[in-house]
């Protein structure tokens, strides 16, 4: 995703044959996704060629963009995305999205750095191994693999 586009270039891709939009200064090619969009094709054609950041975030969480990151074809020239993609194990930056004891500035006689390290290791493991397989198994309706069970053990 090193391509850069102008807002005028994006505006030219405003129909079902070539449907692009902007979300958080990133350009998404939704042409092949239009029939798969859960909200229907009409919603996407309404934002085709435009900056759909507000419309997107009114209806979706940022994780949706991460799930469909393959649809991102570049960024708007001279602009930088404002929303930061989280890495596995990172704490949420959403206020009160995490237990307060996980914050470094919180001092507790009960929770220390070893608790934070354990929590981070468990979250990295979950983000890296469990979540992707669980999402795939939910789609295809099968059970989790023995490999994942062995890894968890």
From TrEMBL:
InterPro entries: AcylCoA_DH/ox_N_sf (IPR037069), Cyt_B5-like_heme/steroid-bd (IPR001199), Cyt_B5-like_heme/steroid_sf (IPR036400), Cyt_B5_heme-BS (IPR018506), Cytochrome_b5 (IPR050668)
PROSITE patterns: CYTOCHROME_B5_1, CYTOCHROME_B5_2
Signal peptide, first to last residue: none
Every Cytochrome b5 heme-binding domain range: 2-77
Key words, A-Z: Heme, Iron, Metal-binding
Keyword Transferase part of the UniProt annotation: no
Gene3D superfamilies (UniProt xref): Acyl-CoA dehydrogenase/oxidase, N-terminal domain, Cytochrome b5-like heme/steroid binding domain
SUPFAM superfamilies: Cytochrome b5-like heme/steroid binding domain (SSF55856)
Family: Belongs to the cytochrome b5 family.
Protein name: Cytochrome b5 heme-binding domain-containing protein
Organism of origin: Cryomyces antarcticus
